[in-house]
Amino acid sequence: MDGLLDLNLVSSSYRPSEAPVLEEVKSVQAAAAPKPTLTPSSPEAILDILRQEPDYESLVSVLHVLGSGAADSSPLNITRPGSQSAQIIQVLITEIVPNYWTLLKEDSPVPELCKPKRPSELELLLRCLRSITGINAMLVRLRALVQEVRSEGNENRSRSAASLNITVALDLLGSVLQPEDAVHEIWTAAAATAGDSDVQRRALSHEILAVLGGGRLFSLAAEAEHIIQQRGEKDAQKFWVADPQAYAEWLGGTIAMAMAEEPSDKETKFLSDLFLRALRLGQPDLLVKIITQKLLFQQQSKPATFSIFLDSMLPMEQRKVMFATLKLFSLSYLDRYGSCESDRSAPAAISSVAGAINAILGASTTRREHVVTWLTSSSGAGLGEGVGIRRAVLSVFAQDRAALSQVLDKSLNQFGDQLYIKHSPVLQQEAHAQVLLLSAGYAYRLSPSILTALMRSSAWLNTISNRLATTHQRARLLGMVVGEAFSALVDRGDKKLDFHTGETNSGEAQWYKSLTQVSDNIGCFVSLGESGPRKAPTPVVPASLALNIFNTTPKPERIPAGGPTKLGFIIEEVEGDDDDDDLVPYAKPDSDAEDSDEDPTLIQRNKPKAPVYIRDLIRYLRDTESYDHQKLALTTAPILIRRKANHGAEVSEHADELASLLIGLQDKFDIEDFYDLRVQALISIVVAQPQTMCLWFAKTFFDGDYSISQRAAILVVLGLSAREIAGLETSGYAEAASFPSKALPTQVERLYLGDVTSREQSSRSNLKPLPLNALDSIANSLTSSFMAPLLASAVDKVTGSDALKLSTFTSRLDASNVKYKSRTKPRTRIIPNTTAQLISSSFFTPLTARFQAALHSKVSRTRGILFQPTLLALYIKTLGILLHSAGPSTLALPDMTAELWAVLLSSSVRMHCVGDLGVTRAVLFALLVLLEVNQDRMRDICQDMGKEVVETQEWVASVFEGIRGGDGDGGEESEAKGMAAAALVRLKEGVDKYQLLLAGDLIG
Description:
Helix content is about 65%, strand content about 0%. It has 49 helices and no strands. The N and C termini lie far apart (about 140 Å). Helix 19 (about 390-395) packs parallel to helix 22. It is mostly helical.
């Protein structure tokens, strides 16, 4: 027992002993002890720790070591490319991030709430991956996860581990690139790696450009996000690296941030190359806007930085950026629609934009030549833009004699060229006429001898002669206006040129002549950054409403403390006879589907009311999360806009904002007749403000960032609006929108209009939604009406002579009687056809002019969207419907005919007709409309457009021979062949009748 007690005492007191048993116990205890926190000092040690699945403390120590070496040239700097750094980054992305990403995000402080004294573990991890090696490793990981999810197929549509890893990878990629100086850090790491080796630095620069600016990163991120949404994650997190607009904003911001730090010449060249690469990602206007705002319009910005940024580009690249900048200034700060504006409109904005342009040009001769080219090129001078941008540009050259002389000479020679007069769009000629008049005014004030010598030259005489000799009415008017304006500056007294016509004395002609007196100054452009892009005016709250803004709750009535008030009499209930048979009971209220819910808590009693003002309608349209607001806005918009059109300035001030909201509106709640209601609301806007909104819609169709379906909706709106304005269509919304105060009393109205109740019911029955193919239906009906006389004459020729037919003889007798009676009819007052002129100038001309500009555009995106077969066919049908709406009595019919014929015979349109029956039918329909409207002008057409007539006849004949069908099967091919046959018959009649004129034109 004593021995046992001694043994226990020894074991409990842990006395040292030399027995081997105690040594084994120590070894067992040492093996079971936890891993100590290691402090790695080499890349090999770091790699070993990361591969052994470290705990959180070990990972934090590794990140601190890597973060401390990321800013110097130590071996622990893994931002520099190398074999060991690549292995460490690979382990961090594939093993550490999937396990510790959520924990690292939770432990990191929020920068908006507090400023940490030292970087968090998450920031240290992001710094380690913020290099071209880290970004490439993340992309490789993301691509592998995408392929893994795709390989699963449709067997497992639920959220798998691979889709979760894709979410983490996208979140990591966005966090690494989130800082504004991310591009600067990536370039700095690459430049430090390359050192003095130009070859290595150039290779690393090309790799960064390909990843960030070439679309490799953005396209892969967008594909990964799309896969997550396909896996049932409809409400999944949205990542900015997969959003084209957000990615362009980030890229522009990082480039501007790096340029503001006054980088070296090599980094400046890299940043300019990255910017030019990014322009091809689909958001060029947004990139130019961000760079311009951050480098020019901020308080701490230096204009010289923007000049240095442009100097690092090649001349042709500078030209592209300069043209995009001028377009940005016009859209954001000057007139956004319309070709005419007052001399007094926005002089401060024009002066500020002129100051910005002057700062960008600086002393660079190359950029000044580019601006002169923009003013005088055949497709420049801001096609379709307001005159404000041209005023701002020319004010920069107000004191530059050489530049003004160059602009005058080039503009005058181009303005008088016969091919330019015949083939250039009208909008283009109007813009160049404005440039010519503005430059003439500046040149005359600077040195009158410049303009005097120019008017004595042969170029001036040829310009006026060619303009007066043209058959294009608008082109001739512009030449007359320019001639009178120039003569008013140089000549005195009776020597002034005056054509003594009403057209040159109209309001528009007087406005053109006044451009020679415009003189704008170069102002301070910093105010542009403070004001920002021009927005719609904010409605002012009336004073009566402003008093009750903060006190909307009614005050409770005070109840006296005493008892009830004593009345002077008491009502007693008297029992009487039950003679209530003559009393009509109230009707039961209509049942509400929303009140039939069994759960009373789900019934909504506070339902929104229909909007009464335009600002309320805009508020409802912006509330995309409310079903009631969206439905009320769509159902009320057509009537409300028409009702407010001629009362106040609500519609005119908010027309463009309303149109933008309606075009971009999505059917999020699956509202019944959503697209028809949206089209009707847009038609109401065009009918209310046709002169301004037609130009806005034409500009939006070609330059807006919209889908094909939204652009098709714009064409439908323009076509149906033109028919309603021309009186060919009647909308039930027009009568429903009339104010009750303008109606007669019911008894009086019944004397003139019959039963009011039946008329109201008929007007309500007219409120029917338009079919989805409204323009197609109109085109088919017009085609049938065009072909009906041809079919009737063909039947007459087959059945026999017209003289032996009683019906034909009777019809001719009736026609003679009508002709005889018409001689005795009294003369009617002639009303000018202003509607046709409106359709020509506001609807038709902007569409054709911008189409011609798009044909010569170097931007492949615009051409790719415009020449989609469905959209191209709808566009051509719209032009035909517009020409038919204008009618044969319009004064601008020769100009509209020439413009439409130029579109139909363009090589791009005829190329798309090959193999596409839809486009072919659209072209044939427009050609039939053209021939029908010009039925009484075939002599003039054969005389002025002989080459077009012969070329069209040959093309239609080839189409007729190439189309199979005509067996009466009623298919699309048979219809197209019938349309081609009808066009051939019409053309052959004109050619046979006026073949001498055609021969003379072709010989000449």
